[in-house]
Write a structure and sequence with these properties.
The chain is α/β, with parallel strands linked by helices and about 325 residues long. The chain has helices at about 5-10, 25-35, 50-60, 80-85, 100-105, 120-130, 150-160, 175-185, 205-215, 235-245, 250-260, 260-265, 290-310, and strands at about 15-20, 40-45, 65-70, 90-95, 115-120, 135-140, 145, 165-170, 190, 220, 230-235. The strands form two sheets. Strands 1-9-8-6-5-4-3-2 form an eight-stranded parallel beta sheet. Bound molecules: ligand TUI.
Length: about 325
């Protein structure tokens, strides 16, 4: 069994967070991960207050355990969803794609445990001062919106910079990755891509099949030119996006071209026009399992690695 200080901070049994994947991480997946002893996370993505409130209430019907809500700070509905998590007494809020300090001024006094995703040491320090109980240090191996640093370089630098627990994310898909994260000083992991193929994940069948078929070099990053870098599978859509970017399309033109593409992938399973966000670990995700099996495989695998890790030490 693996138990770390993160478990006590968040009130969970197993130090595994499920990534708040936009258009994908709903009450069904979040409740399954929380019931398995990890922290399930509902993505507020670009949805409005009503949708989020409904998902939070559904999640509460499916699990008695703590769960989180991921708020993407670039959402057009950020103000209203920021209030919903207070009104609904959500235990944990994870933020992404921006600086959450403005909202933390309301969340922290409301008793919400705030755990921002950071892609730099500077942001980690800033959110610690603002009252974050932990941070997720996410390297560019992850799917979706990515920063510049890798997990290998970001995690130890964040660990050295802050006193609060650090959760590693980006490129972690099995027990070896979990063990490596612990070696870098993290006390937990956040995993997204592997949960895409969980039985309780309601993403389109096409998306699941594409993840299962992906190999090591199947992802790419688009949008680097305008600091909106997004990692997704190489598909007709992402290759066309990259072509337009190379040919000098403006930020507005690219935003227009990309509008609705994640929904097309996650909900409609539209391979031609969808943006199939996925991390570089997709090549290792080859099996459909329940969320509980995934959580247990991650930690059992880590335990085995950690026990064997001393064999070279004389
Ligand atoms: O946020 C994510 N991953 C995401 S958000 C998302 S939704 C989306 N949909 C369409 C296009 C773009 C996004 C999909 N995946 N991960 C956490 C994360 N946060 N990664 C990087 C950052 C980040 C980057 C810069 C956080 C803060 C930051 O700097 C803030 C600042 O202003 O310095």
């Amino acid at each position: 069994m693996i138990r770390t200080p993160l478990c006590d901070v968040v009130g969970i049994e197993k130090p595994v967070f499920q990534g708040g994947m936009a258009w994908i991480a709903d009450a069904s997946l979040a409740a399954a991960v929380s019931n398995a002893g990890g922290l399930g996370i509902i993505s507020a993505m670009n949805a409005n207050a009503e949708w989020l409130r409904d998902q939070i209430r559904t999640c509460r019907q499916l699990t008695q355990k703590p769960f989180g809500v991921n708020i993407m700070l670039q959402s057009p509905f950020v103000e209203e969803v920021a209030q919903v998590v207070i009104d609904e007494h959500v235990p944990v809020v994870v933020t992404g794609a921006g600086t959450p300090n403005k909202y933390m001024k309301k969340w922290v006094p409301a008793g919400i445990k705030v755990i921002p995703v950071v892609a730099s040491v500077a942001l980690a320090r800033m959110v610690e001062r603002a009252g974050a109980v932990a941070v997720v240090a996410e390297g560019g191996e992850s799917g979706g919106h990515v920063g510049d640093l890798t997990t290998m370089t970001l995690v130890p630098q964040v660990v050295d910079a802050v006193k609060i627990p650090v959760v590693a994310a980006g490129g972690i898909g099995d027990g070896r990755g979990v063990a490596a994260a612990f070696m870098l000083g993290a006390v937990g992991v956040q995993v997204g891509t592997r949960f895409l193929v969980a039985d309780e994940c309601n993403v389109s069948e096409e998306y699941k099949e594409r993840i299962l078929k992906a190999r090591d070099i199947s992802t790419m990053v688009t949008g680097r030119r305008y600091d909106g870098a997004v990692r997704c599978l190489k598909t007709p859509f992402s290759q066309e996006f990259a072509r337009r970017e190379r040919e000098g399309a403006s930020k507005e033109e690219l935003a227009e071209f990309g509008r609705g593409s994640l929904r097309k992938a996650a909900v409609d399973g539209n391979y031609q026009e969808g943006s199939f966000m996925a991390g570089q670990i997709a090549g290792m995700v080859n099996k459909r399992q329940s969320a509980a099996e995934i959580v247990d495989d991650l930690l059992d695998g880590a335990e085995k690695c950690l026990r064997e890790a001393t064999k070279w030490v004389k």
